[in-house]
Amino acid sequence: MSERRDGLSGDDLQWRRPAQAGGPAPGTPPAPQQPPGPPPYAGPPRTTPPPRGWRPRLLVQPPPPRELPAQDLARIDAEEREARTITYGIGLMAGAILLVVLLILCGRALF
């Protein structure tokens, strides 16, 4: 098989690029005319100046915050320990009640 200048030979010849004729291919419609684009951006519209003597509103500055009272850290720790003890006590009571209910239900099922 002989190879052409574009590297195609044999069955590949059907895939070659068409010859440049300078115009559109036959049977294709002409390209549609594009409408003219939008005009270039002219910038934002002009604004009217504020009245003479106008100034922005001034905000009243609040006074600085006052100092917070000192905390009694030992008292806070004691109250947290007391609250933890109460929480554990309630949890133990609830667990004991659930255990008794479970024993009653299992006892009724077995006997």
What are the secondary-structure elements, in order, as H or E?
H
Largest β sheet strand count, sense and barrel closure: none
Strand content: under 5%
- C-alpha termini separation: 101 Å
User: Which structural category do the helix and sheet elements fall into?
Assistant: mainly alpha
* Global mean pLDDT: 85
Helix segment tally: 1
Helix content: 25-40%
Low-confidence blocks of residues: none
Q: What is the molecular shape? A: flat
Care to count the β-strands?
0
Rg value:
46 Å
Summarize the structure.
This protein has 1 helix and no strands.
Structural notes for this entry:
- This protein is mostly helical.
- It contains 1 helix and no strands.
- The protein has a domain at 77-111.
- It has one helix at 73-110.
In terms of topology, how is this protein built?
Blueprint: H1 73-110
Short key terms for the protein model shown above:
single chain; 111 residues; mainly alpha
